[in-house]
Amino acid sequence: MPAFLLTAGAPGLDFQTWETENSASRANSANSAILKPAMISPHPTPAQRLRRMHDLLFASYGPQHWWPAKTPFEVILGAYLTQNTAWKAVERSLDNLRAAGALTVAGLRRLTLEELRRLIQPSGFSTRKAPALKAFVELLDKEFSGSLDALAASPTAALRRRLLALPGVGPETADAILLYAFGHPVPVADEYLRRISERHRLLVLAPGRNCQGYNAMTSLVRQAFALDAPESQAQLYNEFHALTVAVGKAHCGKTARCEGCPLAADFAFNSELSARQSQPSTRLKIASTLPNCRV
């Protein structure tokens, strides 16, 4: 499982949970893959533009050192608790769990359901989140002998399906656990990426939470990094998600604040392109709505 750094950053799950052309191959290492600018054609596809956005954001903000946690289990706790909640509220719940000695599987297992509800009350929805956390520990105990390492060693697709079958776990939470707790190469999409994708006209998404929209965003991220070395992709997905949260908090909130945004050049490029093309062929429309995406 990946190493962890405790940082000042905060995950981007604090809104409602959302639950190519060829180019020269990039450098093999994760760090050099992040630092090397993407090659852009004169008429880039949405995926190529998204790859370039990563480079622009990395140049502006630098490495984000996500997820802000010391252990994989703390990542998992945070991924559950941050649903529909601002990260500062999650930090208060994590502080309560830390004081109670419950930031470990054994510590959480010892708590009664009522004790757990009380400790995570600051992050809201405790009557739903407490049983969901207990269900995760129960899965771990019954099927993996209480071992996070054994769980993490499962194949990615099978592990994702197993996480999605748990109560209180949607696609965004499952993918955050896979990527940040277990180091699987899985992109994470959230409200910030949705705003960037729509405002830059990379995708046209149906309103609200729906699995087609979520899958369209993660598919676009996969395409964006498809030409990078496979061994670097988990780190790239990690960094890109953290960077979209950084720019989202600074510039792409509910009301866009474009002045000084590192992505302003792409926005200007798209505006010029849209003026020339009444129906850009590179746009992808996602129309269906499925509130509970479990695939």
List the helices and strands and how they pair.
Elements: H1 30-35, H2 46-61, H3 72-81, H4 87-99, H5 105-110, H6 113-119, H7 126-144, H8 148-152, H9 156-164, H10 171-181, H11 191-199, E1 204-205, H12 211-224, H13 233-250, H14 264-276, E2 285-286
Parallel strand pairs: 1-2
Helix pairs in contact: 2-12, 2-13, 3-4, 3-10, 6-7, 9-10, 11-13
What does the model show?
The chain contains 14 helices and two strands; from the N terminus they run αααααααααααβαααβ. The protein has helices spanning 30-35, 46-61, 72-81, 87-99, 105-110, 113-119, 126-144, 148-152, 156-164, 171-181, 191-199, 211-224, 233-250, 264-276, and strands at residues 204-205, 285-286.
Give me some keywords for this one.
single chain, 295 residues, mainly alpha, Endonuclease III, domain 1, two-stranded parallel ribbon, 14 helices, disordered N terminus
